[in-house]
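Project standup — Tuesday

K.O.: blocked on the structure for the chain from last sprint. Re-posting the sequence here as requested.
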Amino acid sequence: MSEILFLAHSVPFPPNRGDKIRAYHLLRKLASLGPVHLGCLSENAEDRGSISEIDQVAASHCVSNRLKPLILAGVEAVLAGKPVSLTAFHSARLEKWVRKTIAQRPISAIVVFSGQMGQYIPEGFAGPVVVDLCDVDSAKFESYAEAGERVWLNAREARLLAMEEERLARRADATVLISKAEAALFRSRLQAPFISDLKVIGNGIDARLFDPAAVLPHPRLDPSRGPHFVFTGQMDYRPNEAAALWAIEHFLPAIRGAHQTARLHIVGRNPTPALRAKDGAEGLSIWGEVPDVKPFLASATCVVAPLLIARGVQNKVLEAMAMARPVVLTPDAAAGIDAIDGEHWIESPADAQTMCSRIEPFLAQPDKAAATGKSAREFVLEHHAWDAMLAPLSDLVRTHAGEARDAA
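H.V.: unblocked you, prediction finished:
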């Protein structure tokens, strides 16, 4: 039986943040097609405690600790002329395991999740390769540089990472992006005509897990105390931190100007020092990591996603929609989800007064908020179930594997 090698930059368990969620569902989909061998990198004890879950899905695995300090990775990258993203995710142990697995197992295809892991594809591998870039990471670093953040380092990373992304796409039999917008952006940045198979596979949502009928509201988000606005995410991720700070400094004063009892809840692990310093301000709660984000979503009068920089499809938005909550979001946060403004959510520029005015009907007419939330859940059930999202992956792996066998 043909077997698949799956390389991911993070341990897919527990699936509690965007990249892990996508890796988790990719792994399960590949395992449904045949034996899959997982190579990935761990960041902490929680990752390393997930071996039993991996054993239930993967035929074999290598989980290599990612312990290299970022400063050391930066020095190595400069000396080697490589992106920091590659040196930070390099593991000699994982590299050796990949070569051994390909030599000893009938690996028919390699599936790579994220550009950092393309460095592990052996040059001599003759089978098909599918690279899921997900987002155009080089564009993200470019936007940081343009915003004046560590300009030289981010501009360098953007330039070198763009070269690596193009190299991987030319090496791959199929290259996957998370949305049509990301695919168009990727194509526009190529230095030469593109010849690989370019596919779009979006993010999905487990609507059985995110089911408002099965979740109790959080007791501290009592609707009688006033409207509650919730923003979720990994809070040491720069775009989430920037969005949270904008919400605290601009949105919260504006909404409390109209509704004095309004509260903003920032929910997500690893809030940065800049965010922790805001905790305790009037109307604000910085929760940090919580056992389960669903009770916060279930209790939200409205979920806000005021992202100023975003790549791909936002899981936080899909989760809120699946929980039948009304969502107000910026155009960047809306990218990759073909929902309709005014029907499935409310879209607003990052302007506090405009955002508040668009939210006002939800506060004045609770039935309207409930109807929008209901439409949001119906939309993700129909268009963003994981099985539907990942259906093209079966054809990519099987078709290209078949082509490789025919050529042999």
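K.O.: great, moving the ticket to review. Residues 400-408 have pLDDT under 50 and may be disordered. The chain has 17 helices and 13 strands.
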